[in-house]
Specification:
The chain has two helices and five strands, in the order βααββββ. By secondary structure, it is α+β, with helices and mostly antiparallel strands. The chain has one domain: RelE-like (YaeB-like fold), CATH 3.30.2310. A hairpin with a 2-residue loop joins strand 3 and strand 4. The longest helix is centred in the N-terminal third of the chain and has 16 residues. It is globular and about 30 Å long. The model has no long low-confidence stretch (mean pLDDT about 90).
Amino acid sequence: MYELILTRNAERDLQRLDAKIQRQVRSKLERLCENCDEYPHQALKGPYKGKFKLPCGNYRAIYTYDKRTRTVEVTRIQHRSSVYERT
């Protein structure tokens, strides 16, 4: 099992979601951490090269993972229409 790390931005993004969506996102992240080695990671391109997306309904979690340290670091959690915009 991988350790889940939420950046400050990801934690803030998660807190802004309503409770039902928060539960869905947390559930997906837990499943990712439990099966990270076998999970079909969806790589991103362009400015997000080296990061992956985790679909959670209409929301996306952007993350990286490290097999050596066995960690998953989530950097953003936002609606799919705005998650890829540069801030």
